[in-house]
């Protein structure tokens, strides 16, 4: 995912577990935050979700349920009857087209498709006019429900904050490159019992020890090593950019510098939202609630942040982006992150939720550490105030259908 360490929704990540970063008390003076004043989430537009389908292919208790094929699928209605009008279908067609080269080569972890299944749809997508996107999806796909079809959808975005390539008045929060003494260790290379497990740390003498924790880094443990990639104006804004793992720095000369995830210090993440909610400091736990409290109580907020030991490092991004897990740029209001064990990466997803903004068709082009299980999605909203407002408060529930190439469900549905 563009947030390489974690993924997951912003609000969910803050409440539970995701990337992390450091917050120190807001600096006095200097440029205003990229969104000054109170943090107000976009008012949700309510909607009535389409009911989930009765499960006619119940899970076989003798099978593991860690893939979509094992969990079971149910055929849905004709796609033509499901497609809502609107811009999202056109955006989804463009995003699907970008995914096709990778989609046709990937091994589908979900067990629902093979690469060849997508050939016809991808060939048609290459020249299909976006003005008739609904007709494309209706002609080349069939809808299936994975498991019970009950969807939970959150949101993420690409933050924009004030920053500078050089340290100057008002820009004194360092944004660090990955240190060259931060080491990734593949434990599976040492023991078969540890396959798939890794740790990060640094060498101290003849020992591998944990890397500096967040409180050490924000108080200067990396200063003077030439690791400063850029400088942020507002530590609270920078913290939320660290949660996302990538973003844009609005430079003093009006330019933009894009930065992306380049590692993390290996320390466990502690969700600050959960800490604050458990202690009665906030109520709802949204990004806006958390940010408002941090600004109003900078000293106490800094102490809370120090309980989270994780810290994210960055690199400058050039070219198209930000890139999702498929290696293609994620598309605002068309890309969702999903669990590849349950959704083929690159597949269209049709959402019908109790919040209207995400309803319609999306393309599963990304993944995330907090996005696990069937029908769990994280919707990408792009950059800017609207994206921030929608993503920061997104927590929608309803139903989800996956669109598979015509004919592929026949071998999956049990008689």
Please provide a written account of the structure.
This protein is of the alpha+beta class. The protein has one domain (1-171, 233-415): RlpA-like domain (Barwin-like endoglucanases, Beta Barrel), CATH 2.40.40. The protein has helices at residues 10-15, 68-71, 87-103, 119-125, 133-140, 214-218, 235-244, 272-278, 287-296, 298-306, 385-392; strands at 73-75, 141-146, 150-158, 160-164, 173-176, 183-186, 198-204, 207-209, 228-232, 246-250, 256-264, 312-317, 335-337, 348-353, 360-366, 376-383, 395-405. A six-stranded mixed beta barrel has the order 3-16-13-15-14-17. Strands 5-9-4-10-11-12 form a six-stranded mixed sheet, covered by helices on one side. A hairpin with a 5-residue loop joins strand 10 (246-250) and strand 11. The radius of gyration is 22 Å and the shape is globular.
């Amino acid at each position: 995912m563009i947030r390489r360490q974690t993924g997951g929704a912003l609000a969910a990540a803050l409440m539970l577990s995701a990337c992390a970063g450091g917050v120190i008390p807001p600096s006095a003076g200097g440029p205003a935050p990229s969104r000054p004043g109170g943090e107000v989430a976009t008012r949700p537009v309510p909607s009535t979700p389409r009911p989930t389908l009765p499960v006619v292919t119940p899970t076989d208790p003798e099978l593991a349920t860690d893939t979509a094929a094992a969990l079971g699928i149910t055929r849905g209605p004709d796609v033509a009857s499901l497609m809502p009008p609107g811009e999202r279908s056109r955006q989804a067609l463009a995003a699907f087209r970008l995914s096709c080269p990778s989609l046709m080569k990937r091994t589908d972890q979900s067990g629902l498709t093979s690469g060849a299944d997508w050939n016809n749809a991808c060939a048609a997508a290459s020249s299909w006019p976006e003005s008739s996107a609904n007709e494309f999806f209706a002609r080349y796909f069939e809808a299936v429900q994975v498991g019970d079809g009950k969807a939970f959808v959150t949101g993420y975005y690409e933050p924009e904050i004030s920053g500078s390539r050089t340290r100057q008045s008002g820009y004194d929060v360092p944004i660090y490159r990955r240190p060259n003494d931060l080491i990734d260790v593949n434990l599976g290379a040492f023991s078969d019992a540890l396959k798939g497990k890794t740790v990060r740390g640094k060498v101290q003498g003849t020992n591998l020890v944990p890397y500096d924790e967040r409180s050490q880094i924000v108080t200067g443990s990396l200063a003077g090593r030439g690791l400063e990639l850029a400088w942020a104006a507002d530590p609270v804004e920078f913290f939320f950019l660290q949660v996302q793992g990538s973003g844009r720095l609005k430079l003093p000369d009006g330019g933009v510098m894009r930065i992306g995830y380049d590692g993390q210090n290996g320390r466990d993440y502690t969700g600050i939202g959960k800490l604050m909610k458990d202690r009665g400091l906030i109520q709802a736990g949204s990004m806006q609630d958390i940010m408002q409290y941090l600004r109003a109580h900078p000293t106490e907020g800094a102490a809370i942040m120090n309980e989270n030991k994780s810290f994210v490092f960055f690199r400058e991004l050039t070219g198209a982006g930000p890139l999702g897990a498929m290696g293609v740029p994620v598309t605002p209001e068309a890309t969702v992150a999903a669990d590849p064990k349950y959704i083929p990466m690159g597949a269209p997803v049709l959402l019908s939720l109790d919040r209207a903004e995400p309803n319609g068709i999306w393309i599963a082009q990304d993944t995330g550490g907090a996005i696990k299980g069937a029908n769990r999605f994280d919707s990408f909203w792009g950059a800017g105030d609207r994206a921030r407002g929608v993503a920061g408060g997104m927590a929608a529930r309803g139903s989800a259908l996956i669109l598979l190439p015509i004919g592929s469900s026949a071998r999956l549905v049990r008689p």
